[in-house]
TrEMBL record:
EC number of this enzyme: 2.7.13.3
Domain Response regulatory: 643-759
Every HPt domain range: 4-108
CDD domains with a match to the protein in the record: HPT, REC_CheV-like
PTM-bearing positions, type Phosphohistidine: 51
Domain of life: Bacteria
Name the UniProt record assigns to this protein: Chemotaxis protein CheA
Role, per record: Involved in the transmission of sensory signals from the chemoreceptors to the flagellar motors. CheA is autophosphorylated; it can transfer its phosphate group to either CheB or CheY.
Histidine kinase domain segment(s): 250-483
């Protein structure tokens, strides 16, 4: 919230902000007091938070807030003075009061008034068990005004402790109840858009400073050439003196040397000044960028707000005492990443309490402590945020998991019996998979670990599950520290730069031409005892193949779960830390590309969307369109074969035509309907289109009409193959622009092949 917005805000809005911050202090403090009721610092912090809320509620005229905060403060003061020892019942009631205060402060929440008398009566009985339980009379305070009270323009306003989205804190959060003074940083509010713009500008300035390097290199080269010229003139002067030239010639030569000497001094000075300026500019630009990036970074603790309380409350509701221990809560992470981590972490924590931690009696029988422990560790590892969530529960019943896999018909029993533990655990990440037989409020609804995995992948991260029977489970998550920058391997494909995020790269290799083998019509190579499929980046990214006579391939090995693919590129440029620049929204989703960036020299590099790229590989494999990489020429494609696109919504017809034409030497691609075919025609070159008429989304007549209207495609030969053999259907197809009409009723191998030869000739290559 900006200062202008705060001046215009109502007191009720500011009270809501303060309540959000102070209830967080109360929740954390009360949970600490639950384990040790006599901690003086926690008692003091909770008492001050309740006192502050009571005063704030009185100022804005919220009588219910005054009553709740007042009775909570009385309870905490009694504990401070030793007149009361906080029990589990006291902690439960105080936590309920904390929730009630937040509801009272939330605009539009009308349910708090109904629970207020019950809460006050409960607190009264806990404070004075001998007295009759009755609601406390609220203090005499002014009634709540019907319209929000506006703050005067010159009235000092306390700064709220938590920002309203989409604004961001630019300094560490102050502890509630303490005023800003010496030794504390002042907090400002800046909109997320402005901060993103600042980061974008600082990254561009960092790139721009790198462009000084070529100018400095040119000056240094000129200085060397100038020195060589001076030496040549010295030699010429000595020759002229020996040959007895006139004094006028020698004087002119001396004058030239003096002028060149002066220019040499200027050149040296300018080169030195530019070198100094370039160094200073790059240092300041780097500092500016680092500072702008640091403004987006927040401690990992920010995502944990309320998680400890959630674990505690969920455990109590299930009859399981559970505690969450956090390590590395000060680890710095981009705020955007933190926001996207909250949902998957909440799901994993609830899963650990419900599925992992056993009931107290079972834990005691297993020799464990009655209270379950869940550990959450955060740390930096190789430019990534590494998270470990470990519970000390029973682990996963592998026999029950095997039975569930067989019952759901996900795999045959004999196959499941041979699976390793790692293979079995991967089934838990399938959509809708659950080991819980009945639906409860916590689990069994089919929204499981697949949702967590999807959210982590959206962050360009990974998740891994391991377990030890009887001792608990361990989830290991790795996500980028920031979405603003990405560590990448820059490669060259078709003369252009592309970047593969390092998080998706298994390794890079040089593969000799003699190491490439053909298996079931696909190219592979052996590495560490397994076959890795080989594809050309030039085909995936629709770039011309590079022409080189080198006998080995540069290969980037990318991983998707257990599947490895080798992507052949022309050149490995090197590892770079790139500032992500989103593509213009008007472009929509660009196939196989996620975003862009600038290299040090100011040139553009496209960042590859690896998951999208892998989907493209699967599509090429399923349609038989994957092109061979010629062994004698790195990245070079083989002799061009005539390409045919078959568009038909019938899988049987589609595959029949593909095999028939493929066996005759044609390069065949397939599309499942008219829309899919139109997209293929716009992105690739074909020598012939064969299409059905009746198809979903776009029929064959519409497809042919679009082809004939397109300037690039209007000369493409088109054959219509349809079940309809009526004259009017034949006329519709030919009128739309088809060159040939073939009825499926009279369709046979020779008829199709003869028609293809008639239109484009026999297969080449």
């Amino acid at each position: 919230m900006t200062p202008e917005q705060m001046r215009d805000a109502s007191l009720l809005e500011l009270f809501s902000l303060e309540a959000e911050a102070q209830t967080q202090v109360l929740s954390a403090g009360l949970m600490a007091l639950e384990r040790n009721p006599t901690q003086a610092d926690q008692l003091e912090a909770c008492m001050r938070a309740a006192h502050s809320l009571k005063g704030a509620a009185r100022i804005v005229g919220v009588d219910a807030g005054v009553s709740v905060a007042h009775v909570m403060e009385d309870c905490l003061v009694a504990a401070q003075e030793g007149r009361l020892r906080l029990s589990a019942e006291h902690i439960d009631a105080l936590l309920q009061g904390t929730d009630l205060l937040m509801r009272i402060a939330t605009p539009g929440d009308t349910g708090a008034q109904a629970t207020l008398p019950v809460f006050l009566a409960q607190m009264a009985s806990l404070l004075d068990p001998g007295a009759a339980a009755k609601p406390l009379a609220p203090p005499a305070v002014p009634a709540l005004p019907e319209t929000p009270v506006q703050i005067a323009q010159d009235e000092p306003v306390p700064l709220p402790a938590e920002p309203l989205e989409p604004e961001l804190d630019l300094a560490p959060r102050r502890k509630a109840g303490k005023r800003t003074g010496e030794g504390t940083e002042r907090v400002l509010r800046v909109t997320a858009d402005r901060l993103n713009s600042l980061l974008d500008l600082s990254s561009k300035s960092l790139v721009e400073t790198q462009r000084l390097k070529p100018y400095l290199a040119t000056l240094q080269r000129l200085k060397r050439m100038h020195g060589q010229g001076m030496q040549a003139l010295d030699g010429l002067r000595m020759q002229l003196e020996d040959s007895g030239q006139s004094s006028e010639v020698l004087e002119a030569l001396a004058q030239t040397q003096r002028l060149l000497a002066e220019t040499q001094q200027i050149l040296q000075q300018q080169a030195a000044d530019l070198d100094e300026f370039g160094w200073q500019a790059s240092q300041r630009a780097q500092l500016l960028y680092d500072t702008a990036l640091a403004c987006r970074m927040r401690p990992f603790a920010d995502v944990l707000t309320g998680q400890s309380r959630m674990v505690r409350d969920l455990g109590r509701s299930l009859g399981k005492p559970v505690r969450l221990l956090v390590e590395g809560d000060k680890t710095q992470v981009d705020r955007d990443v933190l926001e996207k981590l909250e949902a998957p972490l909440t799901h994993l924590l609830r899963n650990a309490v419900d599925h992992g931690i056993e009931l107290p009696e079972r834990r005691l029988l297993a020799g464990k402590a009655e209270e379950g422990i869940i550990r959450l560790r955060a740390s930096h590892q190789a430019g990534m945020l590494s998270l470990e969530l470990i519970d000390d529960g029973a682990g996963i019943d592998l026999e029950r998991l095997r039975s569930s896999i067989v019952e759901r018909a996900l795999s045959p029993a004999d196959t499941v019996a041979r699976m390793s533990e790692e293979e079995l655990l991967t089934f838990l990440f399938l959509p809708g998979f659950s080991l819980r037989d009945k639906v409860t409020e916590v689990s069994g609804r089919g929204v499981g670990l697949d949702a967590v995995q999807h959210m982590i992948r959206e962050l360009r991260g990974s998740i891994e599950l391991t377990q030890l029977a009887g001792q608990g489970c361990r989830f290991h998550l790795q996500v980028p520290l920031t979405l603003s920058v990405v560590r990448s391997l820059v490669v060259e494909v078709g003369g252009e730069a592309y970047a593969f995020p390092l998080a998706h790269i298994e390794r890079t290799l040089e593969v000799g031409a003699d190491e490439i083998v053909q298996i079931e019509g696909r190219q592979h190579f052996w590495h560490e005892g397994r076959h890795i499929g080989l594809v050309a980046a030039s085909q995936l990214l629709n770039r011309p193949a590079g022409q080189t006579q080198e006998s080995s391939l540069r290969v980037v090995v990318i991983r998707e779960r257990e599947q490895l693919y080798g992507v052949a590129v022309e050149r490995l440029v090197g590892e770079r830390v790139l500032v992500v620049m989103p593509l213009d929204p008007r472009l929509g989703k660009v196939q196989d590309i996620s975003s862009g960036a600038l290299l040090d020299d100011g040139s553009v590099v496209l960042i590859v969307d690896v998951e999208d790229l892998l989907r493209s590989v699967e599509k090429l494999l399923s349609t038989g369109s994957l092109e061979r990489i010629e062994r004698g020429s790195s990245g070079a494609r083989g002799a061009a074969r005539q390409r045919i696109l078959v568009v038909d919504d019938s899988l049987t017809v589609r595959e029949l035509q593909r095999k028939l034409l493929g066996n005759r030497g044609y390069d065949v691609a397939v599309a499942v309907d008219g829309m899919d075919g139109w997209n293929a025609l716009r992105g690739e070159d074909f020598d012939l289109l064969i299409t059905d008429i009746d198809m979903p989304r776009m029929d064959g007549i519409e497809l042919v009409t679009l082809v004939r209207r397109d300037q690039r495609l209007q000369s493409l030969p088109v054959m219509v193959v349809s079940y309809k053999d009526r004259e009017e259907d034949r006329r519709r197809g030919l009128d739309a622009g088809a060159d040939y009409y073939l009825a499926k009723a009279s369709f046979h191998d020779d008829a199709l092949l003869d028609a293809v030869v008639e239109l484009i000739g026999g297969a080449q290559g």
